Amino acid sequence: MNELLQFVITGLTVGMVYSLIALGFVLVWKSSGVANLALGQMVLISSWFAYSMLAQVGLPTWLGLIMVVVFALALGWIIERFILRPLIAQPILSLITVTLGLAFFLEGLVSFIWPKSVAALPHVLPQQVIHIGTAVVSMEYLLAAAISLALFILLSLYFKYSRMGIAMRATADDQLAVQACGIPVTKIFSRSWMFACVLAAIGGILMSSIGGITYGLVHTGLKAFSVVILGGLNSFLGAMIAGPIIGLAENVGDGYLTPLTWPGVKDVIPFIIIIIVMFIKPYGLFGEERIERI
Amino acid sequence: MDLPSGVRNFSYAKDMAIFRTKAHWALLLLLLVLIFTSPLYLGNHWLSVANLIGITIIAATGLNILTGYCGQLSIGHAGFIAVGAYTSAVLTNRFEMPFLVGLISAGLLAGFVGMIFGIPSVRVKGFYLAISTIAAQIIIIWVINHWTSVTGGFNGIPVPPAEIAGITFISQGSQFYLIIGITILVIFFAKNLARTKVGRAFVAVRDNDLAAEVMGINLFRYKLLAFFIGCFLAGIAGSLLAHWIGFLSAENFRITDSILYIGILIIGGLGTTIGPIFGVIFIRLLEKGISFIAPTLESTFDLPAGFTTGIGPMVFGLVIILFLILQPRGLAHRWQLFKASYRLWPFSY
To answer: Prior bond to B346 cis, omega within 30?
Structure first.
C-alpha cells in the first residue's frame, strides 16, 4: 500500500510537467492549426541550452534561466517566421511534415553542438526529502508540479484578461473575422510559437533537473502528445487534467505491470493509452468534436 | 497525357497505356538492360548502395500508396518494416522455413498489424492519425526489444541468407537481382494500382473523404485496404532488408527512420509513382555523400566532434523543410516540367 502512495505522488507530479509541455502544443494548435510534432526536440534542445548556460558557462541559476527563456523565445520566433509562415494556408499534411523536418533538424543540431548523449543539469530546484504519509518524495517533484500549475494559472489569466490573449483566443475561433478586425494574425502565430517554446523549455528544465538530460527527453515530448490526445487537442483544461492522469497511469502501471510484462512498460503505457483513446473517444475528454461539411 | 506532337492514339486502351511510343519502349528496354547488367561493372560497394535503394523504394512505394494516394499520414512506417523484418527473420531462423514463406508471411503480418493500427483512421485523420502511428511504432519496437524469447531482444537475431529453389543469395550481386527484381514488380504493381478502381477510390478518399463516402466509396474498407497494401509492402521491404543485412536489431527501425520515409515522399513528390524512386535515390545518395564528406570536413577544418553525427539529420531536416516551402510537389513535378520542355524543344510553345 505504501508503494502505491509513492507511485501516485510521483505520477501526479511528473504528469503536471507533461501537462506543461502539452500546453505549448495546444497553444499552437488552437491559434494556428499547426500540429507541432517537434515538441520533444524543442524540449531536448532547450534542456541542452540550459546545460550550456548553467554547467558549461557557469552562470548563476537565475541568469541562466533567463537566458534559456530568451533562447526559447528566439527559437519560437525563428521557427514561426522562417518555417511556418511560408506555409500558411498549405494542406495539413505539409504543416505536419514540416514540423517533422524541424524535428530532424533540431535533433541533428543537438548532436552537433552537444556530442555527449547524457549530462546532468545542475540542480535548479532544492532537493530536500519530504515524507508524505508513508511516501518519500523529493522536494523537486512537488516544486515542479507547483511551477507547472502556477504557469497554467498564469496562462489562463493571460488568455482571459490580456488584450493579446483575447486576440489569440479570437484567432483560434475564426481567423478571417480576426483579420477583418485588424488584428495581425501572423503576430499572433509568432506569439503562440514563442510561448510554446518557452513552455517546452521550462518543462525540459524541470524534467532534466529531475532525471538528467538524455535522449529520453524526446520521449517526454512524445508523451505530451498522449496528454493532448487524452485531454482533447484544443482544450487547456483538458491538457492540465490529462497530464496527471497519464503520469499516474505510467507510474502505477510501471509499479504493478512490470512483473507481469517486461521492463520498460512505463515508456509505452502513454502510447497504449493513445491507441485506446483513438478507438473509444478520438477527440479526447474535453476536445471539441469537429463536424465537417462539404 | 503529354505526347510528342504528331502522335495520335485511336483507341482507349492505347491512350491509357503506360508506354505509348516506340521511344518509350526503347528507353525502357535500355534502362532494364542497364539495370540488369550493372552488377558486371559496379563494385560491391555501389551494389550494396543499389540494394539499399531498392529496398527503400519498396518501402517508400508502400508508404506512398498509404500517404500519397490515400492521404493517411503514417509516421510508423519503420515500425511496420520492423514487423516484416522480424517475421521473416524468426520464421527462417527459428523455424527454418524457406525464404519465400518468410517473405510472404512478412508482408501479410505487417499488413495485418498495419490494419489494426489503421482502424482509428476511420474516425480520425491528420494529426490524430499521425500520433496513433507514432504510438504504433513505439509499441512495436518495445515489443521487439523485450520479447526476447522470439526476437532476441536487444541482442538481435541473425538471419540466414535468402534462398529460392536451391539458389542462395549471398553476394551483393546475386542479392541485387533478387531485390531489384522485386522492386520492379512493386513499381509495376503500384503504377497499375493507381489506375484501377481501387487507386481512384484512394485518391477520392485523400481529396475529401466525406465526398468520397457520399459517392459510394466504403471508407472503412478502402482506408484499411490502403493500410494493408502500404504495410504489406513495408513487410516485404523489411523481409528483404533482414536477409540483406543478415543480422537484425531494433536499432535499424528508429522513429527517425519513419520520419525519413515521410521526407522521402515529400522530396520525391506525393501521389506519383516516380516520386518515391526519385526521393529514395536522392536521400540515399545524399546520405552516402554526407558520410563520405563529413569526416574529411571535420578533420580539415577542425570542427567540433559532433559534426559527423549531427550534420546528417540537420541536412535531412533542412532538405525536407526547404522542399516543402520551395518545391512542395517534389522532384516528380520537376521531372514533369523537364519532360514537357524537352518534348517541345526547341520550340517551347
So the answer is: yes
